Amino acid sequence: MDETDFKALLAQLPVFWWEADSDLRVVDSGGGAFDDQDTTQRFLDALAADPGDMPRPPGKDPLQARFDGRAFDVTWLAGPLGAHHHSRGVAVETREGADPFASFADLTPAAAFVRDAAGRYLWTNHAYAHLYGTTRDKLVGRHLTDVDAPDDAVRFLALDHDVLSGNTPVRHTLTYRRPDGTSAHAAGYRFPVRWGARRCVAGIYVDITDYTHALDQRRQAEDDLRALRDHSGLPCLRISADGLVTEASTAVSELLRVRLSDLVGRPADALLADTPERAVLREIWNDLVDGRRRSAETSAVLLDHEHGRRRARLHLTTTGRSAGRATSVWTVVTQAGLRHESHTTLTASQIRILALLAAGRSNAEIAGSLRLSRQTVDYHLSRLRELLDAPTRPALVARAYVLGILSPHTWPPRSATATHPRSPA
Description:
The protein is built from 15 helices and 14 strands. The strands form four sheets. It has a five-stranded antiparallel sheet. A hairpin with a 5-residue loop joins strand 5 and strand 6. Helix 1 packs parallel to helix 3. The longest helix has 23 residues. The N and C termini lie far apart (83 Å).
């Protein structure tokens, strides 16, 4: 493998490297900021500016250097011919004609190899041999079929043939078998190189088994959540930070009498009736999205596709974070009242009358508690029976509960939207 091929190998590695002569003048460099040789020279000039630390004899501790706000460990080695080579965490002492790039490839944490066209290993680094639970001395000279399962060897030889016939680098992921028999995954590049007079295949890969496993776990969790969402019967939906429905359960589409495909992508605000609870919900929403709250419970009047209304209790929980803000909010309908046609929003006085009526108070007692005349209470009760389509006092109380006007979980009775436990409305 010549110097050009090794530089092609280094181009795929997540490392910074440079080569300098005995006067600390840049010969070559690459990787990140050091792709720019002016930056590399500024770094070497900064090192040379501190004569107390330079040069260091072989075997001494590495030099700690800071440059552009980043820390580097640099080992200084003086070769017999006065050639100095510096790198981040790697220093190479070479004789004239030796290949300094081989040491970079040897020590990189990415797995790298060179094979001939027949599938025999000509060179590997330590990381590649580690994948097979062996050393590189025991790999070099062996054939693919000696170290890989028959099916894997056939597949890898086919990949080598594709690279050589196409004469271009290929980026891909592959599955291989570890020495313990478990399946593993790697991602990287495979590309043609020359090894002496022979055309060969080189590859450099990073093991992504743990990353792939984490993705599989995430997909499984998402599948489980989707199954729970669709089959639990809970009306729930995910709303993006900008207020659009991104996911919804079949239960919520049935509740709102709208097809699931028409619900996704719709502004969530369009699902709410214009009631005082809507303004309260907007304030809660802003707190959730801006990160001031993680969850909240509130009430709202839902408006279905046929303009029917249904008072509901909502539980909202934020999910995901980006730049300090929630990326989405899961909304679950924990209670839903009876569907009804739109009617005039009840006043605070009317809700207080309903709460006292549900507590068993007579008209006279209601009038005394609210400091109203008996005639005013009679009027409100008559008006409430008309609004809620309830012919009798018991029916009026029952309708107040099933419509979600009164909370079914409190005593004494009070409004489902009361903000204070002692407040009837």
